[in-house]
């Protein structure tokens, strides 16, 4: 895979999150807990991990990170970025 910039990664992840959460609030509330906001649930989280693996070739096992390490849009982008 070609090198992806932080801005490209952020844009693609926000598109994915908006699709999974079915709400564009993820774009403006990037530091807020998506679970607390009711935008993401456990099924959505699994869908997100599968999509991340399909889109970026990055595998993140649900047991690999604590929920509070991946509960905001910005933290999710960070977790993908450090694995690329």
From TrEMBL:
One GO BP annotation of this record: lipoteichoic acid biosynthetic process
Pfam families, per database record: PP-binding
PROSITE patterns in alphabetical order: CARRIER
Location(s) in or outside the cell: Cytoplasm
Modification comment: 4'-phosphopantetheine is transferred from CoA to a specific serine of apo-DCP.
Keyword Cytoplasm: yes
Keywords in alphabetical order: Cell wall biogenesis/degradation, Cytoplasm, Ligase, Phosphopantetheine, Phosphoprotein
Sites of O-(pantetheine 4'-phosphoryl)serine modification: 42
GO molecular function terms noted in the UniProt entry: D-alanyl carrier activity; ligase activity
A GO cellular component entry from the record: cytoplasm
Function in brief: Carrier protein involved in the D-alanylation of lipoteichoic acid (LTA). The loading of thioester-linked D-alanine onto DltC is catalyzed by D-alanine--D-alanyl carrier protein ligase DltA. The DltC-carried D-alanyl group is further transferred to cell membrane phosphatidylglycerol (PG) by forming an ester bond, probably catalyzed by DltD. D-alanylation of LTA plays an important role in modulating the properties of the cell wall in Gram-positive bacteria, influencing the net charge of the cell wall.
Protein known as: D-alanyl carrier protein
Taxonomic path: Bacteria, Bacillati, Actinomycetota, Coriobacteriia, Eggerthellales
Gene label: dltC
């Amino acid at each position: 895979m070609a090198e992806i910039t932080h801005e490209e990664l952020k844009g693609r992840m926000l598109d994915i999150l908006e699709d999974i959460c079915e709400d564009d609030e993820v774009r403006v509330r990037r530091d807020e807990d998506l679970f607390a906001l009711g935008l993401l649930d456990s099924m959505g989280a699994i869908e997100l991990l599968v999509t991340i693996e399909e889109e970026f070739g990055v595998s993140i096992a649900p047991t690999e990170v604590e929920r509070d390490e991946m509960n905001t849009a910005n933290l999710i982008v960070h977790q993908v970025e450090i694995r690329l």
